[in-house]
Amino acid sequence: MSIRHGLLALLSPEPRYGYQLRTEFEASTGATWPLNIGQVYTTLSRMERDGLVSPGEEDDQGRVVYMITEAGRAEMERWFSTPVAQADRPRDELVIKLAMAVTAPGVDVGRVVQTQRTATMATLQELTRAKRSAAGGTAQRLVLDSKIFQAEAEQRWLDHCEAVLAANTEGAQS
Amino acid sequence: MSIRHGLLALLSPEPRYGYQLRTEFEASTGATWPLNIGQVYTTLSRMERDGLVSPGEEDDQGRVVYMITEAGRAEMERWFSTPVAQADRPRDELVIKLAMAVTAPGVDVGRVVQTQRTATMATLQELTRAKRSAAGGTAQRLVLDSKIFQAEAEQRWLDHCEAVLAANTEGAQS
DNA sequence: ACAGCCATGTAACTTGTTACATGATTTT
DNA sequence: AAAATCATGTAACAAGTTACATGGCTGT
């Protein structure tokens, strides 16, 4: 529900039209998660269906301007004041992959870990480079930082996995 | 595509029936991401449609046993040998929420951060408790560890956000 | 008898996502 | 004139998810 709420938040200060929303969404969250323009319109339609936004009159330039409704504002406030719970998060593909690699016989877990480590390292370097070039405002920088923190945590976890697996094979099977 | 591939991996050593797949999936990944049994069957149907699995004959006890196909095995190997890329990951709701909180006027970002920090702290304690009780095999333990690493990274990032925002309000706006 | 687990399945829905069609305006 | 950008929208699909229907078997 990230996009819905994101658009809702962008509409909260004042009405906007679809194309503008994409631009501003990407300006806030950065270029790493590009937002297809079609999706803006589908999401707006669905939010209209759910009573969160309503299309006002057209622009002076004929653009369709949406504005947030009462219900939409309430939903936005609920969103900001409710923490993201553990259960809300999507399943982590890497974690499932490793769990399966450990479980399934005949899979070289070490190789899976190594492959991922290389990729994550490359990601990390790219992110660091992006951070050095330092375009964008506070929001974009924080998004970048989040990705860096997450990639670093992933590296540490991969190290940890290797250590655990090494200890497992040398000693008894678990 | 985590569940598809997860089921595929579980089917790789030998054929299984649906109910069994749920049990084993949860045994590998832990109870934190419960898997609805209905989903196992829908996913199996779709995988059959895509030629990744095929229902063999019934069990001696009348259970519908699925087995992995050639194409399924190839897909599984591709999965294990391909790293999870940055672009593959879903949008992070918390990150978007904070980016929007920073961007939108009239939102108390500090409160959003605090609310999340409290929740994440509670999560972390719960995870640590779960780890101490230490049921489950290697896979489950690694999944738990991953969640702990991620929660810790999230706490660090929230701290970092606060620091950046404090520096921002005391000095000039960015 | 009844509760609860084992077991399979389907219908319906959500969000996310893309490919495509269409046209106006602006830049080169 | 052609290319690019601005702007709106639709059709179609994927994957995940749940609620429900159905029935057999097991333990109390």
- What percentage of the residues of chain A does DSSP assign to strands (E)? 5-15%
- Structural classification of chain A: mainly alpha
Rough outline of chain A: elongated
Sheet with most strands of chain A: 3 strands, antiparallel
In the CATH hierarchy, what is the class of the largest domain in chain A? Mainly Alpha
Describe the fold and architecture.
- Two copies of one chain form a homodimer.
- By secondary structure, the first copy, chain A, is mostly helical.
- Chain A folds into two domains: 86 residues, Orthogonal Bundle (Arc Repressor Mutant, subunit A), CATH 1.10.10.10; 81 residues.
- Chain A has seven helices and three strands, in the order H-E-H-H-E-E-H-H-H-H.
- Chain A has a three-stranded antiparallel β-sheet.
- In chain A, helix 2 crosses helix 3 and helix 6 packs antiparallel against helix 7.
- The first copy, chain A, is elongated, with a radius of gyration of 22 Å.
- In chain A, 37% of the residues are buried.
- Chain A binds a DNA duplex (28 and 28 nucleotides) through helix 1, helix 2 and helix 3.
